[in-house]
Design the sequence.
């Protein structure tokens, strides 16, 4: 058996299949609270992967992610709902993703030419202008109070509490369970497409662009075109995340899509490790689940007050913001390639430990091997924008 | 006509406050290549200190202390955190920019928690008094904003132009490596730059929340972000550009707000977001800003 597992291909598919099976089994064991955390995490992960492509791989800082999430979410609600064209929800979902991509495309004259951290400032405009539009375009967005989200329907199957009633293996399948599988499917789609993009020609071109714009363009990378397509692709992922978020929240309101949300997404990819799909996922789960868990267990945590217990006390939302704000600083100080890079280096170090020589535990402490693995594995992940001299 | 003059004066007052903030951005950028996203929280910190201290120290004393403390906090952040990130990496400035976002999250969360849902008065001497200037009535706070900003900005420009530190700053902005080889102590230059920027931000806070604004609230820091368009319009590395950009942004905001009834297509409160619309329009035409020098890339 272990021989079988050692043959690379089987082990490769096993590392994917096991977590996938585990994730598929979870709805049978967890209650709605945990499923909702998972659902929000999956939506956030989809968005974070998109941002990671743009910021981590292409080195373009974007603070406009909340805007594209909003375009996806509101696009779906408007296209599928009343008032609006009232399209079949599945069609509306696809169109909403395309709409987010188109919004990214419209911004590409700026996104293609403004580089690095400056794009971060330019995209601030999207968040503020977008928020203004969400508040004022009442007929489409429902204004300050937002709109309720029509449930997704796929070939007569509705992703809601009923219609049809469904019980699988004695577990009643409500909205959370159904959306969980939808989220899993969409996340799997994101995972594989993003890895494909990163490992193929576009990923290499974008990384070259990040490391040196001049060198990349001399090597034949069309700079502006790759920059703006990275922006479009990233906004399409954001749109998809927006649709899933809208379905899970069942109501969209403008104030959710504020600058804070954009900063949350940035926190996700920095904490997870820039430029890697797995890192973005880990970061997304961390940043999404932390405030929800803290709210739930506020009464058992030291230093954290239950929500609404007066001014000046540290509520769970604040506590989690302290934590991940500090996490950004600490991670960039001590492990610039994020949790993902940290995990990879630890793994590489363990693997390099000589199996028999010496007593156990002395292997990895010498400095040289770790330095070697650092440089060997450090091609695509670090938190770098391009351009060497300003 | 009075409407026009009103908007013009409001715009100038607003623009001069933005200029204080934008000048800070630009100074930091020149010294270190970092875009400081902490500016919103530094501004909030300055305003909060004035709000808390003015009962005991009087307004002037509170303001002076707030400026000093904010400057010291800014310098400490640079020395103790930012300068330790990235090391000799050529992209260090970009990584440090992201670190400033992390610092901002922590500081803003903490200050917002302390401020809560309240509106804190700053106890400024001009209160809600107004002065008649010919046909228009102007709030005294606006006049004070213009005068004090003019003095502060003049002082900052004098620093850039006539002091050894200003010379070092300009040298560092020109070519960091060459400046270091010529004996410019880059760490000291950038720490002083952060000091200056922090002080200016605290000063700006006082005028940003003065009458007719209701007072210091937890979202005040977000207003500082409007100085970003101002600095970007100016091309980020040019103090004069930042000044012009700030005036442009301030005037746009005031005129859009003043003529809101004629612009109702754009929706209520468009004045607040107009600076960003201007920024996008300018970036479409000149991606490097209005005053940026054209540079050739070296490989």
Sequence:
């Amino acid at each position: 058996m272990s021989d079988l597992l050692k043959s690379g291909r089987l082990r490769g598919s096993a590392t994917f299949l096991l977590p996938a099976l585990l994730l598929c089994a979870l709805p049978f064991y967890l209650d709605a609270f945990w499923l909702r955390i998972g659902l929000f995490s999956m939506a956030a992960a989809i968005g974070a992967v998109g941002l990671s492509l743009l910021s981590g791989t292409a080195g373009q800082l974007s603070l406009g992610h909340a805007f594209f999430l909003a375009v996806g979410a509101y696009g779906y609600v408007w296209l599928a709902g009343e008032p609006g064209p009232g399209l079949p929800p599945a069609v509306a979902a696809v169109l909403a993703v395309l709409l987010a991509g188109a919004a990214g495309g419209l911004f590409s004259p700026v996104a293609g030419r403004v580089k690095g951290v400056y794009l971060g400032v330019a995209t601030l405009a999207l968040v503020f202008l977008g928020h203004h539009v969400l508040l004022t375009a009442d007929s489409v967005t429902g204004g300050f109070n937002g709109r309720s989200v029509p449930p997704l329907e796929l070939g007569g199957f509705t992703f809601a509490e009923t219609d049809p009633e469904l019980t699988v293996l004695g577990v009643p399948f409500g909205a959370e369970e159904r959306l969980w599988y939808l989220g899993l499917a969409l996340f799997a789609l994101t995972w594989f497409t993003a890895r494909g993009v990163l490992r193929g020609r576009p990923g290499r071109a974008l990384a070259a662009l990040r490391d040196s714009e001049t060198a990349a363009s001399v090597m034949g990378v069309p700079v502006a075109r790759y920059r703006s397509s990275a922006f479009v692709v990233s906004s399409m992922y954001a749109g998809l995340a927006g649709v899933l978020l809208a379905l899970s929240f069942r109501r969209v309101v403008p104030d959710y899509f504020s600058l804070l949300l954009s900063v949350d997404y940035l926190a996700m990819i920095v904490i997870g490790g820039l430029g890697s799909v797995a890192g973005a996922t880990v970061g997304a789960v961390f940043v999404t689940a932390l405030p929800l868990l803290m709210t739930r267990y506020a009464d058992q945590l030291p230093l954290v007050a239950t929500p609404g217990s007066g001014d000046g006390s540290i509520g769970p939302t604040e506590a989690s913001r302290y934590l991940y704000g500090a996490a950004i600083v600490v991670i960039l100080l001590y492990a610039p390639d994020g949790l993902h890079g940290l995990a990879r280096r630890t793994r590489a170090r363990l693997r390099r430990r000589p199996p028999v020589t010496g007593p156990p535990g002395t292997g990895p402490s010498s400095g040289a091997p770790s330095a070697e693995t650092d440089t060997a594995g450090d091609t695509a992940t670090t938190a770098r924008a391009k351009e060497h001299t300003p | 006509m009075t409407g026009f003059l009103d908007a013009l004066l409001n715009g100038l007052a607003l623009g001069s406050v933005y200029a204080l903030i934008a000048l800070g951005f630009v100074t930091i950028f020149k010294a270190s290549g970092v875009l400081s996203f902490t500016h919103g929280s530094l501004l909030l910190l300055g305003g909060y200190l004035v709000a808390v201290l003015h009962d005991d120290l009087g307004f002037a004393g509170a303001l002076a202390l707030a400026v000093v403390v904010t400057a010291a906090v800014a310098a400490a952040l640079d020395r103790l955190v930012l300068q330790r990130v990235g090391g000799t990496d050529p992209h260090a400035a970009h990584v440090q920019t992201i670190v400033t976002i992390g610092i901002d999250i922590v500081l803003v969360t903490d200050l917002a928690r302390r401020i809560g849902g309240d509106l804190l008065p700053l106890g400024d001497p001009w209160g809600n008094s107004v002065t008649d200037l010919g046909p228009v009535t102007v709030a005294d706070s606006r006049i004070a904003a213009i005068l004090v900003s003019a003095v502060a900005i003049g002082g900052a420009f004098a620093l850039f132009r006539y002091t050894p530190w200003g010379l070092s700053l300009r040298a560092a902005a020109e070519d960091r490596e060459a400046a270091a080889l010529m004996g410019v102590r880059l760490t000291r230059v950038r720490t002083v730059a952060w000091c200056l920027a922090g002080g200016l931000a605290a000063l700006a806070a006082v005028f940003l929340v003065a009458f007719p604004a209701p007072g210091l609230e937890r979202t005040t820091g977000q207003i500082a972000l409007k100085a970003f368009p101002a600095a970007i319009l100016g091309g980020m590395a040019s103090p004069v550009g930042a000044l012009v950009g700030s005036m442009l942004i301030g005037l746009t905001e005031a005129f859009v707000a003043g003529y809101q009834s004629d612009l109702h297509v754009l929706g209520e409160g468009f004045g607040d977001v107009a600076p960003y619309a201007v920024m996008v329009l300018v970036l479409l035409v000149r991606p490097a800003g209005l005053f940026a020098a054209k540079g050739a890339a070296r490989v």
In short: The longest strand of chain A covers residues 147-148. Chain A has 16 helices and six strands. Chain A has a mean pLDDT of 75. Residues 67 and 127 of chain A are 5 Å apart (CA to CA).
